[in-house]
């Protein structure tokens, strides 16, 4: 799943109602205006747990993992490494039992320009988490902000 599809206009609602399959999508403009906040509100109404992961200021692996810990409210046992992030993203028990999980990574394109090695390491972790949840009753979708 290394190539990500663009999310068409208005498709967030279709992800939340199940008519668009869960996955990793490029979301042009997610970081502009209230787009991410609107998606979080839509997700809450659909009983999905949503989180916004701000990445525009991430410069290295450690700041990426710190951003994840804060934005995703990761548990204290989070070990601040890629394996621990994978473990957390395939558990999510602290998020309760919603109908689905929505992760919106704002500043993804900035991250890919400023710290491409971090983005390259994070991408398979996110993709594997989406694949993991695809086999369960609770879907996960990740939206990667594109400018």
TrEMBL record:
InterPro entries for this protein: Barstar, Barstar-like_sf
Pfam families tied to this protein: Barstar (PF01337)
Source superkingdom: Bacteria
Domain Barstar (barnase inhibitor) residues, every copy: 49-144
Family: Belongs to the barstar family.
Listed name of the protein: Barstar family protein
